[in-house]
Design a protein that fits this description.
This protein has 303 residues and is of the alpha/beta class. It has 10 helices and 10 strands. Strands 7-6-5-4-3-10-9-8 form an 8-stranded parallel sheet.
Amino acid sequence: MALSRCVKLNDGHLMPVLGLGTLVSEGVPKSKAGEATRVAIEVGYRHIDAAYVYENEEEVGSALREKIADGTVKREELFYTTKLWATFFRPELVRPALERSLKKLRLDYVDLFIIHVPITMKPGEELLPKDASGKVIFDTVDLRDTWAALEKCKDAGLTKSIGYKPVCNQVECHPYLNQSKLLEFCKSKDIVLVAYSALGSQRNSKWVEESNPYLLEDPVLNAIAKKHNRSPAQVALRYQLQRGVVVLAKSFNEQRIKENFQVFDFELPPEDMKTIDGLNQNLRYFKLLFAVDHPYYPYSEEY
């Protein structure tokens, strides 16, 4: 890993500042996640962001192992994140959940294991357990107990890093939701802010409202991109890197995967950074409205 393209976490491990997201859109075959991972590693990505709930860790793991086997990359050069899904928050379920991901990946360890959403749900095989009326069934677990179980996973060598003392906080972050206050807080505590949905959001009807605006069609973003002879996506990613944010870019298109990686050879001047700051609307694509009544619902507070 090129040190200039990494950030040092507060536990001493290095995290590449640009990663590939692997969530597959509705109707897209899981194999696309594997193909995108192969292309990304060939292009130079060393940070792969995944999750149990994406249901494609076998495909992603296969791609990782293939690129290790053919000599493109060494395992220690890769940074792989997976996430603990909300149905596995009871302390006794945490390690088995991670071991299940490792088995699918056929890896000995992951680099980062984080809590996916802070909303506890009924344990079981269903990803979104619902009652007869279609409401999600929640569970009552103290997240501090979940946390202690994550610490044991780290002690056992199954993951190099965990979210707390948070080495990082992965949140939705893009020019329409720039999280400036949260970013300031994280920096003050030596916590790295990791941005998902950094390019806006795909239209996944299960999670995102169809009526939301398309970030990459924003005229201001497009004008800045044109000025620098770059794509709006490259400008949105570069904006985050200059703020000290680690950024995840999800694409299953080979050309765009390559394009999104080309963000290290230009810089946005202060006036452009300020203009992009001005696009903030506190617009959240992923609102998790099904969980608004949950005591741990995260978006009721100012941060």
